[in-house]
Amino acid sequence: MHFKQFQIYSLAFLTVASAFMPSAVLAQASNTGTWVTASPMPVARAMTAAVTVGDTIYLVAGGKEEEPTSEILAFNVTTGAWTTKQTTLSPSRNSGRAENIAGKIYFAGGYAKNNVPAFLEVYDTEIGQWSTKTKMSSGHGGPASGAVGNKFYIIGGEFDGAPLPVVEAYDTDSETWKIKKQMNTARTQAGSATVGDKIYYIGGTNQAGILSTVEVYDTTSDTWQYKSPLTYPRTNISNTTIALNNKIYVIGGRNEAGPIANVSVYDIATDSWSDSTPM
Fold first, then answer.
1. Of the candidates 177, 179, 238, which has an alpha carbon nearest to the alpha carbon of residue 205?
2. How far is 238 from 193, CA to CA, in rounded Å?
3. CA distances (Å), 144 to each of 26, 28, 262, in order?
4. How does strand 144-148 pair with strand 129-133?
5. Is the pLDDT reported for residue 24 higher than 70?
6. Of 65, 81, 129, 187, which cross-links 204 as Cys (Cβ 3.0–4.6 Å)?
7. What is the four-CA torsion angle of 231, 186, 236, 180, rounded to 10 degrees?
8. Residue 36: its pLDDT value, please?
């Protein structure tokens, strides 16, 4: 997320880790590395999808594993005010992913109450309505995502208990999906950040445990390449991996011991990691 104040907002760390976490919101000024507390959410929200449109952060769906929701929470970073938007997203689900393309929110992946649907929906923030688009080839539970030009990418995740290496790209003009080059290491609940025409896919988990693996996907050449691994293995960072000023910030998440407050910063130019001020 990139705002005029050059602040990084961490909403998802406190809500992805557990359905019972407080509804706190933190903001870090990237030029000073300090954290301040912003206005709390009206309700705690687990496993949500965060996306920025203009000066508003939208939290799409989410909820407890057994009680997914279709509501959208909207946070205006200028006024610091929250609003709740009742929507007709169906089925309700959690652990989906959302991206802003031309001012509309594209939402796919995640878990419904009893299955892993392959649906793609688009939310028009101007009129507050969803529309249903072409389905993916299969469901992706807990994937990552990216947006480059007019294409919406759903990356990895899991289906039927198995991590997926599959990458799907949706063309918003032709309204069709295309299978792209598979990643090298299949995983779920990883973080992603888009810089130019590249999508960085970071951390996550698979049968081997919680990972520090970093790969970058070149959307132009349709190729994957490994990069320097995270300093600390972590998962549940889908909404707290943020690109800003040619750096990628990975905020919080979980390791084998539970939720963590560490902030790791990846320098794209030097392919190296450093630590920033923890939450």
1. 238
2. 9
3. 22, 23, 20
4. unpaired
5. no
6. 187
7. 110
8. 79
